[in-house]
Structures are given as C-alpha cells and as structure tokens.
Amino acid sequence: MVFTLFDNEGGKVGTFSRNTNGTYDIGPMQINSSNLPEIKKHFPTVTWRVLAYDACASFWVGTWWLYRKIVDRKGNVFEGIADYNSKTPKVRAKYIFNFMVKYNRRIQQRNGMGELYQWTQQPPRYNGHIAKNVPEQNPTPVVK
C-alpha cells in the first residue's frame, strides 16, 4: 500500500512540488511543508532537507503520516489515503480513484495475474465522481 502511495505521489529524491496554496510537497513521499511543525514534534531531527534528500526518512515519515491519517478517519484506509493528499473533495476523489487503479494492478501483478488482467479489463476512466465509476451493463470487449 505504501509503495502504491509512493507511485501515486510521484516524488523523487530532491523534488519540491509547489502547490496552488503556496506550500510545497517535499521528497519521494511528497510530504507537505505545512506539516513540518507537526512532524518536528515527533521527529526532532527531521527537517525539509532530510525529507527531500533522504529517501529512507521520507518513507518513514510518510508512512507514519499515512498511519495518522487512517487513525484520524477511524480506520478507514481509503479516506486516510485521500487525506494524505488533500482535503479538497474533487482532488480527493480523483486521487483515491487513481490510487485504487494502481493498487489493483499491483495486487494483480503480485498474484501473477498482470497479463490476464491487462487483456480482460477495460481501461479505467475517472468520470468526475468516485461513486459513478461502476462497470457498464454491456461493456464493449477489449480488442488489442
């Protein structure tokens, strides 16, 4: 799950991604700069430089931050994952949809079903609302 979160975040060592609200997402786990004061309380030696340039520290703190988000959502994993990224409803919905697509592929590949999955499933499309993403009644067959 953490590796899928990492894939979804898209960060790399040394990356800083500016957000529209003026904050930055830092390092491999793209930890938001607005969270640094809270992180500092629990990890006194972790600075923005550490999060940006130390992949192990970024994963450690990112995993801890995800855990906190899941606890805040009373154990709802997907709500916690969405909170990791954003509080904005539209952004959250698209993020969790993309996460679920990547997570499902990862599980299929891990179980040796990656190729079968690729040939039997429609490409997932996000249509603007997570609840509306249900399979069509009569889907068109996938032809490659």
From TrEMBL:
Domain of life of the organism encoding this protein: Bacteria
Keywords: Plasmid
Classification via SUPFAM superfamilies: Lysozyme-like
InterPro entries recorded: Lysozyme-like_dom_sf
Annotated protein name in UniProt: Lytic transglycosylase
Species name: Escherichia coli
